[in-house]
Amino acid sequence: MLGEGQEALGTIQDAVNDTEPQLDGILFLYLIFLSLTQYFNAELQTYLRVQPGPASVKPQRLSDNVRAALFAQYNSTQLFSVHYPLDPNPCPGSSQLQEFALFHDFALLDGRRITPLSKSTRESAGSSIVKVSFGEDFWYGEVVNIFSHAQHGFVNGTQLLAEFRWMKELPLSPVDDDPWSAYPELDVKCFALDAFCTPAEANSPPCVLPFDCIVCQISRGVVTTTDPCMWITTTMDRHPSK
Question: Three-state DSSP class for 210?
Answer without folding.
Answer: strand
